[in-house]
Amino acid sequence: MNQTNNRFPEMFMWGGATAANQLEGAYLEGGKGLNLADVLPGGSSRIKLLNKPGFNFEIDQSKYVYPNHDGIDFYHRYKEDIALLSEMGFKVFRLSIAWSRIFPNGDELKPNEEGLAFYERVFDELLKYDIEPIVTIAHYETPLHLIKEYGGWRNRKLVDFFERYATVLFNRYKDKVKYWLTFNEINSATHMPLLGLGFSPDSEETRLQDSFQGLHHQFVASAKAVKLGHEIIPNAQIGCMLLYATTYSYDSNPENVMHALEEARIFNNFCGDVQVRGKYPSFIKRYFNENNISIEMEDGDLELIKEGTVDFISLSYYMSRTEKKSKTLEEGGEGNLIGGVKNPFLKSSDWGWEIDPIGLRIALNELYDRYQVPLFVVENGLGAYDKVEDDGTINDDYRIDYLREHIKAMGEAIKDGVDLIGYTSWGCIDLVSASTGQMSKRYGFIYVDKNDDGSGTLERSKKKSFNWYKDVIESNGTVI
Question: Cys staple from 357: which of 91, 303, 409, 448, with CB 3.0 to 4.6 Å?
């Protein structure tokens, strides 16, 4: 352990983050309907399907495995898992609610009581240990019926269905949940509309138009949820959630600098400007014109967006992005989900994601300078292969090193004047990877004995990082 002079705020919220579709399992239990994650296969097939037009949203068990169906069985083991989180000293735990557990098809008038009761039990268990739940309302799990019947978020009708869903959640859990996030990584939609917007592009030509139209519907739905949440839960704190990638120019060539700025504004700033500032930014007009994008809006949409701004920004940060206006195929950033070129100054993870702790400090400064609202890092972590030794230990020093440097960067950002309120490491317990559908891409402090083919005992065990993170929390980030 290292001693630092970082001083995190006294009430800083340390914890971990997960998503329902990646850990719950029980995909057909408790009245739950099918959702997007249930039809996404595991393994190398997934990332190809995420970026290829024409996905059919069908389950084909003769051809694929579907690890999300079982997850890590949190649905039945949540008490055991929450006890382990408490042992680490968690102050908060970020989780999502599976929309199709509450409304199996997504468009029903009455919710499913079994689903509501399940999450109530989970929240009660967390509160028993004084762990504050942070709830994501929509986390890459659009009900399958809304995708097949309505075409996902391209359809305006989903705004009303989401409003009904959010209203039920706020009323049911108003005494148990204070912190809410509307849409997970909302700005990822243009890169991965399948995950974020629940549709597979008909063609590359229609992808941008449909994606930005779907985003507009989500902006309206989010604003409605923020207003409703504040009415039903007066002390609620409701945030947006961005996938943030600090963006560099490849060099000092002005053309590359300008290109990096344009890419960063569209990806990093557009959604934040709408959800925090409450209006479409001026730079988006030129982008829409040059890409033949025309957004259909109803009367009152822009007023609603202005009235339904969020209280704070939450973000995921895994990697930075380096941009070059003209690049060869060989120069591409192989593993970075959001494109760019390889950065010669950075090392990469087992999956090719470039590791850049300083980029997190830059990200936090950029966001706080732009918006002047509290920030919350709700995803950050290292997906890596873990080896179980003969004696059962898992010496994940590489994960400790990764997290240590990112926590140091957060401490520096706080010294810079950034109002940072919390940190939840992604996948605090091993779960199914969203991008690859693999269990072998592990993030957790807690090892789960499950393999990519679905075999394993599901037994939980502590990695070396478990006690390390426990000390970090106990010392409020001064011992890392």
Answer: 409
Confidence at residue 333, expressed as pLDDT on a 0 to 100 scale: 55
For the chain, what is the total number of helices (H) and then of strands (E)? 16, 12
Q: 13-17 and 312-316: which strand pairing?
A: unpaired
Which amino acids are annotated catalytic?
379
449 touches 376 (CB < 8 A): no
Q: What is the mean pLDDT of the chain?
A: 95
Distance CA 263, CA 279 (A): 19
Contact by Cβ (8 Å): 143, 106 = yes
**Tokens encoding 464:** 């070396």
**Three-state DSSP class for residue 329:** helix
Looking at residue 249, its pLDDT comes to 97
CA distance readout (Å), 56 to 59, 88, 139: 9, 42, 20
The pTM of the whole model exceeds 0.85: yes
- Could you give the domains of the chain? 13-474 (3.20.20.80)
Residue 334 has pLDDT above 60, yes or no: no
Alpha-helical segments (H) within 54-189: 74-88, 99-102, 113-128, 144-150, 157-173
